[in-house]
Structures are given as C-alpha cells and as structure tokens.
Amino acid sequence: MPLLKPGTRLRSAVCTTEVMVIQAPTIEVDVRCGGAPLIDLVAKPTAGASPAPDSAGGTQIGKRYVSAAGDLELLCTKAGAGTLAVAELSLTIKGAKPLPSSD
Amino acid sequence: MNVAMLLEMTADSFGDREAIRCGDAAFDYRALQHAARRAAAQLVAAECQHAALLAESSPAVPIALFAAATAGIPFVPLSYRLADGEIRALLDRIAPAQLITDAARAVPLRDHAGIAVVSCEVFLAPGAFEAVASLPDDGDAIAILLFTSGTTGAPKAAVLRHRHLVSYILGAVEFGAADAEEATLVAVPPYHVAAMAAVLSSVYAARRIVQLPHFDANAWIALAAAERVTHAFVVPTMLTRIADALAAHPVALPALRALSYGGGKMPLAVIERAMHLLPQVAFTNAYGLTETSSTIALLDPDDHRAAFESDDPALRRRLTSVGRVLPGVEVDVRDADGKPVAAGARGEFHVRGEQVAGEYLGHGARRTHDGFFATRDAGFVDADGYLFLDGRLDDVIVRGGENLSPGEIEDVLREHAAVADCAVLGVPDEAWGEAVAAVIVVRPGAAASAEELRDFVRARLRSSRTPERIEFRTALPYTETGKLLRRQLAAELRGDLAG
Fold it and tell me: With an 8 Å Cβ cutoff, are A61 and B9 in contact?
C-alpha cells in the first residue's frame, strides 16, 4: 500500500466501511478492516467476502479511529461490519469532549 | 477532504430528515444532496471558475455551496447590500464565473463580461443535467471566497480551503449529534462567515436549518415559535432587538435551548438582559473571524451561568469575555513588534491551527514565521485562559504617542446607567495628534451630561482616556451584521469639526 496522506479515501475489501485519512504516519502502514487490507475507494471489494470473526466489531459513521501510537487517524465516512486495525492491533474511537453549538 | 463529503455522510445516514426550510420551500438531506449534484453538473458544463451567489438566504445557498464543492470550484457569496458598481468590480475579479441571483438582479447583470447569469429558480431546477457522481479530492482547493467589508480599502477576498473548513467542522461538531427535533435558525446573510459555518455545522450534525432571509426581531420570534427552533446564532444587534421585542411582548419559546452569538462585541447589559428574559436558554459566545473558518474561541453555557450567578466582580466580568480557544487552536498575544507580551497584558491576538486560513486571494498566506495569523484584534488573555477583546487594532486611538483602546473606554461608558450604546473614536487634534471622542446614545427616560460622563470615565481610567469630546445621538450606525460603522462615524465627526 502506498503512503497514506490526509484526505485519502479508502474502503474495506470485506464490508461496507469507508474511511477518510485525517492523519497518517510518514511510513507505510498496514491498515486493515475486517482483517483485510483497505483498498482504494473506487476499487471493488472482494465478492462474497466478510470480516474475519475476530475482526467483526463494526465501524460507526462519523467516528474518528486512532492507532495506539496516535499517528494514524481515520474518519469513518460509511459504517460497516469490520474492525479497523493496524496489522493485528485494533484502532480505538477517539473520544472528544462535545462542544456547544456555536453556529 | 471536500466539504461536500459532510453532506454525503449525512445524506447516507439521515436521508429522510428535513435539511432546510425557508418559507414553503423544504429539502430533506437526500433531496439536498441530489440538488447539489445536479447543480454541480450545470456548473461543470458552464466551464466557469467560480460559483457566485448574489441573493438573500434560501435553499439555493447550501445547494450552491455544495454544488461548487462538488464541481471543484470556489463558492463566492456576494453582499447584496453593495452598490451596482461595487458588485461589478467584484465580478471582474472572479470572472469567468456563474452568478446565481434573483430575477430582479439577473437582468441588468446579464451582459457583464465573463459572467454567466442564472436565476435561483433555474439553478435549483437544472432539468437536463445528470448528477455529478464523485467528489474531487483536493483538500487544498478553495471551498469558499468571502470578500471582506473593505472598510480599510478595496475588499479583500478571504480564502477558505476545504481542509480549513473540514478541520473546523470535524473538531467542533459531532457527526449526527442532533436529535430529530432540533432546528437552527439562521438569520445572518449568506455572505457572512457565520452563515457558511451554520450550513456546514448543521449539515454535519444533521440539524435542520430554518432560514430567515430578512432579520426583524418580531419575525425572528414568530419563526422560532412556529418552527419550534432549538438553536440559533445572532449578532449582538439582533440580540438587542430580540430582547427589546420580548420585553415589550413576552413570547414563550419553550423549544429554544441554545443561543450563540458573535460577530461583534456583546455589551454586558444586553447579554444579562437576554439571560433574564430567556432563563431556559444556554448561551454561547462564539469568537472568530472570516479568516479563521469562523469560531476559534467559546464562552460556553457553564461559563455564562457561573458568571451570571456570581457576585464576584472578577467572575462576573467573564460575561464580557469571548471565552477560551477551541482544542486545536493556539492563541498568542503579541506587541507591535511581534514579540509576546507579558501574561495578562494587552496586545494583538495571533492564532494558529488547522482551521486558520489567514490568506487572501492574490496575497498568499499572511502568517508570521512561526505560522501564526495576526488577527488585527486587540485584547488580553486572563490567568484562566479567557480572551477579552478590546476591538480592532485599526481603531486604536493614538493620543500624544499613547495607544488607547476604544473598547476599554466604551466598556466603562456602558457601565453608566444612562448609557444605552456608545462608540469611542479618535478625531484629529492639533495638540495630541488624535483626541478621544465619544458618541453616546442615552437610554430612554434617562439623562447624563457630558461633564458627568467625563467624570465617570476619569474616576475609572487614566485621564488620557477621558473623552475630550462627547456627542449625543439617538442611534449609532451599524451594518446589518452588527458591525459598528466606525469609519462613517469618524467621517461624520470630522465633518462636524470642519463645519
């Protein structure tokens, strides 16, 4: 997989999850969803595939997912059944204190 | 990172929810996205480089904003308050452009070189066009160009790129956070950054937008009641008028939960009055500039309540603060040489962050070597990180080599029981270079002499800050977005002097 950069949009090969890169490390990163590497947004998902049983935690639209190292952040733009991960390590939802509406 | 992706996400998850209402016109999120994509195809076919809008608030505003983003060209909302010649001068700067406007304005502008005029009605119903299916993916592209009011020269075109706006929205708004009953009332005109931020924030939160094209306090109250509005943004002059109208004819607004305000300095008396009149409402002061993608600091509802209920003058003063900076935004107060001032001292606010654009078309980014944008706003930050805004640096009065902040003197004058509104500005003076002049609007039924007001200021500030000249007026001149027309007032005072 080429280097990720902010704004890049990717999708899961094995579920409906779509993400946008918010922040990425400057080295290649093995980012997966449902156990399979993410693919280009316009690429076709694997026919008939589904997330691996240990990688089927699901994604939520609008949530931001971060790596343990904190150097990778993805915005989920479409929900799906797979778990986002770097290699075997699941990403976690970035909690943020909600701000009052200001506009 | 295209701003149109915000709409795409909401349309996917909340397609049936009403997105926008203006009078009888309404669009749900799916229809809004479809309209934007079809309008985008029309923009692509027109081979224009900008999509300009010269019209009052209507569903054409969000549709044109997202259509332009989908077509990959900047959206340029223009002020319909400008004179014909001023509008044409701005059009020359963005040609070739498609101009979306109402029927009355379309005819005279039809022959303007490089401008393809289309009426709002046609723009909203581009029959023959297939929707554009995919979004351009360049976060560095310009999403919105907003012309500044140009009080210090020709209007500058402030550049907001997709990455600035998306960064602001992702940092400030939780996706789909609004419940199905929520509705926000937008009464600022489309060419104000608050109107652009309202569209993007509301869409990402999946909060219904209710538009009020012409602000009038009674119309605002009636619409808020009829549409069970839960949220709204107002500029200070709007809140003053709403408070007056509510005091004259009390109307229960039980649905209203949150009122945010910004776009100008909020007088303490006005916010206190509004909090008395609307005890169920959570107030938020939002401070930001066009160049910073809207809000960069917030005085939140808890801050308001704590200050409102306190007898401690220091805490109570917080109601005049614009709050603390958002996560992801840094503020630094610097002197005229660009050096940081001592903690708590006055200077110019410099800000830095992903949402801070600080850039004008043709001028590039106006940043310091360490990436801060100089806001031209003067003020100070207290020990707890609360920002206090004095006013624009360009309004500073230089009297005998001493820099005086009009805001500081205005704050004191407003504490006088007889003062309803006031403006302090510099007028030419042979002895001092500039002298301090104050224009006072007296509260109905109250009275104060010039001498009494001078004594009042002298007792609280240094004597150099005491207005040498005091004039009384029945009202001060404001723009419809609540900005005091200081230059106009100064010119009038100079005219009076010359006369």
Answer: yes
- Nearest-neighbour CA in chain A from B40: distance (Å): 20
Residue pair B402/B436 in contact by the 8 Å Cβ criterion: no
Sign, Cα dihedral of B249, B251, B257, B258 = negative
**Closest-CA distance of chain B to residue A54, Å:** 26
Poorest-pLDDT segment among B17-21, B385-389, B476-480:
B476-480
Pairing of strands A89-90, A36-37: unpaired
**Do B477 and B489 form a contact (C-beta atoms < 8 A)?**
yes
Provide the edge-to-edge strand list for the sheet that holds A92-93.
A39-40, A9-11, A18-23, A73-78, A64-66, A92-93
Please tell me what DSSP assigns to residue A54: G
> pLDDT (tens digit, 9 = 90+) per residue, B259-297?
999 988 888 888 999 999 999 999 999 999 999 999 999
Question: What percent of chain B lies above the pLDDT cut of 70?
Answer: 98
Q: Residue B499: what pLDDT?
A: 45
Name the closest residue on chain A to residue B162, using Cα atoms. A7
Note the pLDDT of residue B366.
Answer: 81
Say how far apart CA B127 and CA B473 lie, in whole Å. 54
For residue B196, the tally of other CB atoms under 10 A from its CB is 27
Sign of CA dihedral B192, B194, B200, B203: negative
A61 close to B175: Cβ distance less than 8 angstroms: yes
The ipTM assigned to this model is 0.91
Report CB contact under 8 Å: B1, A7.
yes
**d(CA B171, nearest CA chain A) in Å:** 9
Give this prediction's pTM: 0.90
Partner residue facing A102 (CB), from B177, B260, B327: B260
User: What is the reported pLDDT for B298?
Assistant: 97
Query: Under the phi-then-psi rule, with left for phi > 0, alpha for psi from -120 to 50, and beta for the rest, what region is B154?
Result: beta
How, if at all, do strands B97-101 and B115-119 pair?
Answer: parallel
Interchain CB distance below 8 Å, A103 and B139: no
pLDDT of residue B392: 86
Q: Is B245's pLDDT higher than 70?
A: yes
Q: B126 pLDDT band (50/70/90 cuts)?
A: low
Q: Which residue in A97, A17, A91 sits closest to B174, CA to CA? A: A97
| Token pair for B13 | 């998850």
- At residue B302's C-alpha, the angle toward residues B390 and B193, to 5°, is 50
Is it true that the peptide bond before B96 is cis, omega within 30 degrees of 0?
yes
Residue with tokens 């007792």: B459
Q: Is B327 on the interface with A (CB under 8 A)?
A: yes
